[in-house]
Amino acid sequence: MKKSLQIGGAFVGIIVGAGFASGQEIIQYFTSYGYMGIVGALIATLGFAFVGMCIAQISSRLGTTSHKDLIYQISGKYIGFVVDYLLSFFLFGVAVIMFAGAGSTFKQMFGLPVWVGSLFMIILTILTVMMNVKSIINLIAMVTPYLLAIVMVIAVYSIATMDLSFAEQVVIAEQQSQVASNWWVAALLYVSFNIGVCFSMLTVVSGSIRNEKVAGMGGIIGGLLLGVLMLLINLSMLAKMDTIAGLDIPMLQLANEINPVVGILMSIALLGMIYNTAVGMFYSFTVRFFKPSKPSFKVAVIFIGILGFVASLVGFTELVSKVYAAMGYIGFILVASIVFAWFRGIRKPV
Q1: Model's pTM, two decimal places?
Q2: What domains does the chain contain, in order, with CATH numbers?
Q3: Which of 50, 71, 141, 311 is the most buried (most CB within 10 A)?
């Protein structure tokens, strides 16, 4: 059970980065669809649990050490090549979004220029990525319980102190930016792009577990925990839409409404989740092209970090809406390949 919880915690920790924990993603994919967004969150929960289980079990069975090992086996030579490089590109894109999210958090909470927060997160990420993979996995899993506790407090407060009825808040919510014309498409896109986000690191984590049932249970636990967080944040956003509409980091605003101390705790939680995802994405992207044991790895980490800093200056909200939506459609191919491979019981070639 300990190993299952570790996989589940890492699953959540990788996905719950800047967009998720800040509330920005949840607004665009769920809250903006009103009541149907709640149904969408429930569908997404089931999707995360099932696909997470499939990835974990297949990775454990094959003993994968990188996403490349699995992609080519489940997608074939030609589709695998396309998916491999597209996924690698988006890993870098998500890392950049995390850097931008750190900049927005520093600005909203401390009044500092955006580039200061971005630079701080990039330096911290670079230093961590130079560590060994087991240390990275442990760090990622540690922050999840802390965030869950903070989000529960904010959700209870938001619902207890809402100024308008849910019916009135829904009207405001439905005027916010939406990623798709239908709520169910948005829910499926949310699952597919997040599976793309966590796929690389989850294959590495699960590939080190020799018991596929233990690994699969970790995928299920992670999916259910994500569902709880999605629903809590969605309800928080819906209850306070009149006060948080248009903000980059709406969850931080709600935390500050409770008490400045809670705002600081939320900032720490948010930066912790941004750090988790940034490290997971940055590490997965770099090891795809450079072996950690080679001297070129550390040079590559620093160079890619500089590129990430420049790209992060585009802006957090803009990056979330553009990069994540595009990754969602490509993620459908990945999810379909994973599920098909799981049903046909793929095994390591003899």
Answers
A1: 0.80
A2: 2-343 (1.20.1740.10)
A3: 71
